[in-house]
């Protein structure tokens, strides 16, 4: 059977459109419009937030939506949903992923939502029911939220075995968009990759053997600025299923990176590298972290392409700063671990467009611009990377051989003066069995912010990076920045 990603995506949309009268709505760009509570679009429901809150402009097209289906470009690399640290380490969290979703805005509720989901998975996609677990909200006394017994009953009536219906609390089964915004109890569907009778223990336990694939959220509240829960004017359904994880299941793989969404990209990365091909190892088995590097580069290049196509460029504040970090991590893994040549990252862009361009045509039309921006930024970072590595070497040479804590002042200077993401410094040191003096760095960062806000009356990220603003301006105009010379504030 053809379970290509393209087909799987289309089957989802067609199922809800043809079988249950849902209207197909395109993905919104990943840059959130008019929502300061978000860095990136992190779920399919973001663009429908006004509808869920009951405050959509009655003249807008959205106001007439009752049943909707789409596949949404999502980025989870900042804010409440931030998976950046997991990417590359595991095989099922990405910074960019596609979320397949269906919605009911004040139309159907729990019974229909569960029945539709179950039918799609077990009939259209033919996933064996014995491999599926469902979770239900167990309630939360502190918030006065009751256990969701109704949903348990619904799953039982759909024929789910009682042993495969599991209760979980706020962390896993109460979904929230961000610090504020629509939220509600949810019921999730998890897939057992092994077929083990004890797999239930691994649900929500960060195990690659049992992976969450679909979340059905029953939107009933809004989390207000003061932390309280305000009931919404109407009950809605908001679901989200990770396309990459679903495709992995349907293609009989254990890793998202072994599906057709990634394999052409991993081959293209191999072409640019001077190391062996991707072999899928994780953890300790992945010596020298070559496989992790493959995964990080494959993940990050997708995110870079999608973000740049949607007008988020690597820069100095907010989402732009996050994207800059992502770019720098990608450059570092590709050049240092995979020993790829300069310009390798940009050369992967057409492959990303080839894989995803059908679903998101802007990747085709924007290919040249994406490549140019990636190249400008890569050149710039490679020169600071070279200097940074020298600084680290020199510092290590001067240090007492027994110390494993790297001085905060040097780390902070690398960050401030050479624009090193702090997590990148962590990684570079971790490989040498060292770690940064984190409390020290936090102190320096706090002192810096303090000084900045006193001198400018402007606290926050803008102040923190103000001396790099000019560089950002050059970048945003596409002009390569050449003066990357270090400005050390102390003697090394
Ligand atoms: P997890 O517990 O695995 O981190 P989640 O509970 O944070 O997932 P939801 O917010 O419920 O995820 O999102 C709905 C669906 O989107 C998930 O069931 C999963 O299939 C998919 N998903 C979530 N985060 C990612 C990610 N970082 N990469 C790929 N798919 C993801
Ligand atoms: Mg998560
Ligand atoms: Mg989860
Ligand atoms: Mg979830």
From TrEMBL:
Keywords: Aminoacyl-tRNA synthetase, ATP-binding, Ligase, Metal-binding, Nucleotide-binding, Protein biosynthesis, RNA-binding, tRNA-binding, Zinc. Consists of three domains; the N-terminal catalytic domain, the editing domain and the C-terminal C-Ala domain. The editing domain removes incorrectly charged amino acids, while the C-Ala domain, along with tRNA(Ala), serves as a bridge to cooperatively bring together the editing and aminoacylation centers thus stimulating deacylation of misacylated tRNAs. One of its GO terms (biological process) is alanyl-tRNA aminoacylation. The keyword Aminoacyl-tRNA synthetase applies. Monomer. Interacts with ANKRD16; the interaction is direct. The keyword Nucleotide-binding applies. It comes from Hemibagrus wyckioides. One of its GO terms (cellular component) is mitochondrion. Belongs to the class-II aminoacyl-tRNA synthetase family. Alax-L subfamily. Catalyzes the attachment of alanine to tRNA(Ala) in a two-step reaction: alanine is first activated by ATP to form Ala-AMP and then transferred to the acceptor end of tRNA(Ala). Also edits incorrectly charged tRNA(Ala) via its editing domain. Residues 3-492 form the Alanyl-transfer RNA synthetases family profile domain. This is Alanine--tRNA ligase. One of its GO terms (molecular function) is alanine-tRNA ligase activity.
